[in-house]
């Protein structure tokens, strides 16, 4: 079984910051907008290097989305930065009309997604954002798993024409994907080959899925692990190819089971290859204060939860 | 088709080739009021007819605000803006206009068509299935002249600020114009944008407020009073001008040119345009009743009779 090494814990938002720093040097059309969270989004280096291309909007996310839409007229590639909650739910109508329906080339970059935001609690822990964004026609939705992948995704979306929602997080997590990787939007990454069960995971749950596969392997279960960094457009081919071999699937995400990756996978399976599926996701609930590890355990979002759901779904094959 | 040809024949601007037209508009800007005001008056009447006929045909749409802004749009696209009807989304080196109160699409479509952005015959497709002329303006169907979707209110000033900032980054010294409804100022996003534009010296921006005092449910003072808009904008750090006769072409042109002369001086500019909703059709004037209601056959005839053909119907 293929092994992955954590090269040292890092936060995914810092991967975004590193990507922005690089884009600042390589793409003069990239502009950055932030709603009073420059440090939290790790946009400070871009701001320091390119003050003329950095726009401090203040605590006014609706205005930020509108300004970003307007800046595309004139050829700019705006990257907006704030927490996932304020990047989506707070400004849904602005994104819908001024960005998605208007077909504007805006990159909505969202940190502190999910319960792993931690102690700030449920007001800030959005678990509905993937659903909100994936329902918008023309919107690309990406949830990256570690520092290196987030940096690569940040670079890749600058080259993609059209609105993108890029979701990442606050906590330091394992950094295990290759440095300087090529990020292909919409292309799943096969991490571990397996024959008994398919585990597709996104975001912080990818590393947990790798840990789960190792535990399952010790129990004689061969799990195939796929990193679905792009929820929309979904790599249906990769998923179908895998379940045709394994016969059952577990989806894992730091998001409500309604509207998330799991439901997108269900649709693909229902239309093409009905397959028993288990969902590692929050169960239509809000989060609460706590450490990221405590919250992932309480809300069933860690390797142990993936192992348990795998054992459950294997019985339904 | 014949009617439209008649318009083309009568339209001085339309008869020019597009590259020359841009040059012409640039030169014209240096010579105030060179365009024959009589021609613009005729165009206003023709635009009123277009508005009435568009909404009547599909028995839906917003004639009141559209009629109230006919003079403003005619002045903007024929006398004030340096623009190119050979449409390019990025609009570099030309003035750009954003309509925030998208429901007054009939006047926007009429003036865009009669400025050469698309064939005037296409006004026949307003609000019909498979049309580029959606109920509210959109970029989605690729209609030339539209750079942002609008309809959900309160978003236009933000978008205009973004376009203005992009112009500054591109060292493009042209102006961004936008129009908002007065009732629309009840949306909070506007005040985020108003604060931002002043705080960041977005001084290549002229925001016009269609100050007709009416909204769907009644007078703005009844629904949610706007207070003293002049003082509000001033206290936010804006330059404020007022056009008391917002349905008078010469008054509009004079004050809008004054507004333009105030650009580039560190402050965004607000123009309070006092208009009469339903202007030019007596039974539609001074009431909110025609905000979103189409005339029936008899009312259409009455409205058209008050505005006889000038440049030719589509």
Low-confidence stretches of chain A: none
Judged by helices, strands and strand pairing, the structural class of chain A is alpha/beta
Estimate percent helicity of chain B: 40-55%
Order of helices and strands of chain A: EHEHEHEHHEHEHEEEEHEEHEHEHH
Alpha plus pi helix count of chain B? 12
CATH second-level architecture of chain B: 3-Layer(aba) Sandwich
How many alpha or pi helices of chain A?
12
What is the CATH first-level class name of the largest domain in chain A?
A: Alpha Beta
The CATH C-level class name of chain B: Alpha Beta
Major sheet: arrangement of strands of chain B: 1-2-3-7-6
Helix content of chain A: 25-40%
User: And the CATH topology of chain B?
Assistant: Rossmann fold
- Give the termini separation of chain B: 7 Å
N/C terminus separation of chain A = 23 Å
- The computed structural class of chain B is alpha/beta
DSSP strand count of chain B: 7
Give the name of the CATH architecture of the largest domain in chain A: 3-Layer(aba) Sandwich
């Amino acid at each position: 079984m293929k092994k992955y090494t954590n090269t040292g814990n890092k936060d995914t938002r810092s991967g975004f910051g590193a990507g922005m720093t690089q884009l600042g040097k390589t793409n003069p059309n990239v502009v950055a907008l932030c709603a009073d969270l420059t440090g939290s989004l790790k946009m400070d280096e871009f701001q320091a290097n390119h003050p003329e291309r950095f726009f401090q909007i203040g605590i006014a996310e609706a205005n930020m989305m509108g300004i970003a839409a307007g800046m595309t007229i004139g050829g700019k590639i705006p990257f907006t930065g704030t927490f996932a909650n304020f990047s989506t739910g707070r400004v849904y109508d602005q994104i819908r009309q001024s960005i998605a329906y208007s077909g504007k080339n805006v990159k909505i970059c969202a940190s502190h997604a999910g319960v792993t935001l931690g102690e700030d609690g449920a007001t800030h822990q959005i678990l509905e954002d993937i659903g909100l964004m994936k329902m918008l026609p023309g919107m690309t939705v990406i949830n990256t798993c570690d520092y290196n992948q987030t940096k690569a995704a940040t670079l890749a979306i600058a080259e993609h024409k059209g609105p993108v929602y890029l979701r990442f997080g606050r906590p330091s997590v394992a950094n295990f994907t290759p440095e300087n990787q090529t990020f292909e939007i919409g292309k799943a990454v096969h991490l571990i080959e397996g024959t008994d069960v398919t585990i597709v995971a996104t975001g912080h749950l990818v590393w947990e899925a790798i840990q789960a596969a190792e535990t399952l392997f010790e129990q004689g279960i061969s799990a195939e692990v796929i990193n679905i960094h792009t929820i929309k457009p979904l790599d249906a081919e990769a998923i179908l190819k895998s379940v045709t071999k394994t016969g059952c699937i577990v989806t894992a995400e730091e998001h409500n089971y309604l509207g998330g990756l799991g439901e997108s996978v269900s649709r693909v399976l229902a239309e093409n290859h009905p397959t028993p599926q288990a969902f590692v996701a929050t169960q239509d609930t809000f989060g609460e204060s706590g450490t990221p590890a405590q919250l992932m355990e309480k809300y069933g979002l860690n390797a142990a939860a993936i192992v348990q759901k795998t054992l459950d779904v294997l019985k339904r094959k | 088709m014949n009617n439209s040809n008649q318009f083309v024949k009568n339209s001085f601007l339309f008869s020019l080739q597009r590259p020359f037209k841009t040059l012409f508009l640039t030169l014209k800007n240096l010579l105030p009021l060179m365009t024959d005001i009589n021609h613009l008056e005729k165009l206003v009447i023709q635009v009123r007819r277009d508005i009435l006929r568009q909404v009547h045909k599909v028995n839906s749409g917003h004639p009141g605000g559209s009629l109230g802004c006919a003079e403003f749009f005619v002045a903007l696209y024929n006398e004030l803006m340096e623009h190119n009807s050979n449409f390019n989304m990025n609009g570099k080196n030309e003035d750009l206009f954003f309509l925030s109160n998208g429901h007054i699409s009939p006047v926007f479509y009429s003036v865009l068509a009669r400025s050469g952005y698309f064939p005037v015959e296409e006004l026949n497709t307003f609000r019909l299935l498979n049309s580029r002329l959606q109920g509210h303006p959109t970029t989605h169907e690729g209609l030339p002249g539209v750079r942002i979707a609008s309809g959900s209110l309160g978003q236009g000033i933000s978008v205009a600020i973004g376009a203005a900032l992009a112009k500054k980054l591109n060292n493009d010294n042209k102006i961004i114009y936008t129009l908002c409804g007065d009732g629309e100022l009840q949306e909070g996003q506007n005040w985020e944008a108003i604060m931002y534009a002043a705080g960041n010296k977005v001084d290549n921006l002229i925001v016009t407020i269609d100050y007709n005092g009416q909204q769907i449910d009644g007078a703005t003072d009844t629904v949610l009073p706007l207070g003293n808009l002049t003082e509000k904008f001033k206290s936010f750090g804006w330059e404020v001008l007022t056009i008391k006769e917002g349905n008078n072409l010469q008054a509009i042109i004079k004050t809008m040119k004054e507004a333009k002369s105030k650009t580039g001086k560190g402050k965004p500019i607000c123009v309070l345009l006092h208009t009469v909703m339903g202007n030019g059709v007596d039974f539609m004037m001074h009431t909110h009743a025609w905000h979103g209601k189409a005339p029936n056959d008899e009312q259409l005839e009455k409205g058209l009779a008050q505005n006889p053909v000038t440049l030719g119907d589509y």
